[in-house]
Design a protein that fits this description.
By secondary structure, the chain is mainly alpha-helical. It is built from 14 helices and 2 strands.
Length: 313
């Protein structure tokens, strides 16, 4: 029964996060990127803060923690969410999910920038090279039909922003005495403030409301942003980081399948091959050199809320 419950949680989390790109694509039919992301973070913040207080927890206190949460909110939520939404104006939702799966590679590259001690083993270097080769295969700049575009680069930049954010959070937001749920609620609240400041950047554009778009944004904010984190927290608490990290490998598969089945996005063989190569590179960065058959929970120090979120959109 315990194993079945774990598998159900992993499946639900992969579906929630993997479907986020699908919901973004639907939401963009009625809302501008800024409007969509503002609704997403506001709904996510409401869910997380509500769960926080229902659990008799409270938001963090102290200027220093809120200062670090502000940096984390920008690079982990406001900026990448906007970049993904803007990118999906021209990029298929499935491809966006595949590009998002490169996040662990950017984590390794960002770690030295923030002075985080990360041992660059031969396996990790090989994983980086393989992963970057997968990105190149997806973009295929040598072909006229290649996917290299400003929208695709925006999605890749969003994944890089996640990578920087996870390292930053691991360094400055661990050992604070606050629960991951409390930190996430505060962080999402600050992200909502950032999106309010971004309203002049298309936030006042005309809205063409439709039932489908409204449902998509509500599911994106409440399910894929708020509830998904709470579910991730439960999975981490009950099964540990290794079980939670499996979600990262399922997420791009879910996004590609949803895009192909419901949005009629083409299943490009080169993109599928690139996804396999990227995930292979990520897998190499997680292998422990002394235990070739064992996966590490993550390539660098992280706080619990970020472990499965390495590929969380």
């Amino acid at each position: 029964m315990g194993e079945t419950k774990t598998l159900l949680r992993i499946g639900a989390l992969a579906l929630m996060w993997g479907s986020s790109f699908f919901w973004i694509k639907l939401g963009l039919g009625a809302f501008s990127p800024v409007q969509l992301v503002l609704a997403r973070v506001a709904l996510g913040a409401a869910v997380l803060i509500g769960l926080c207080y229902l659990g008799r927890d409270r938001l963090p206190s102290g200027r220093r923690i809120w200062g670090h949460l502000t940096v984390a909110a920008f690079f982990h939520n406001a900026l990448p969410f906007l970049l993904f939404a803007w990118g999906e104006l021209t990029v298929d939702s499935g491809i966006t999910g595949v590009l998002n799966s490169t996040t662990p590679l950017w984590v390794l590259l960002a770690a030295p920038m923030l002075g985080t001690r990360t041992k660059m083993t031969a396996l990790r270097v090989a994983g980086l090279v393989v992963g970057l080769a997968g990105i190149l295969l997806i973009f295929a700049p040598w072909e006229a039909s290649g996917l290299l575009s400003w929208g695709a680069l925006a999605c890749l930049a969003a994944a890089a922003s996640y990578g920087f954010a996870f390292v930053y959070e691991g360094k400055y937001l661990t050992g604070t005495g606050d629960s991951p749920l409390s930190l996430a609620g505060g962080q999402m609240l600050v992200a909502t403030g950032f999106l309010l400041l971004a309203m002049p950047m298309g936030g006042f554009s005309p809205v063409h409301l439709s039932t489908g778009a409204i449902v998509a944004v509500v599911i994106l904010g409440i399910g894929s942003t708020g509830i998904a984190f709470a579910l991730n927290y439960q999975l981490l608490a009950s099964e540990g980081a290794v079980a939670a990290s499996i979600v990262g490998y399922l997420l791009p598969v879910v996004s590609v399948l949803l895009g192909a089945v419901f949005l009629a996005e083409p299943l490009n063989f080169r993109v599928i091959a690139g996804m396999v190569v990227v995930l292979g590179g990520v897998a190499l960065t997680r292998l422990r050199p002394k235990e070739r058959g064992t996966f590490a929970a993550a390539p660098v120090v992280e706080r619990p809320m970020a472990i499965a979120g390495e590929t969380a959109p």
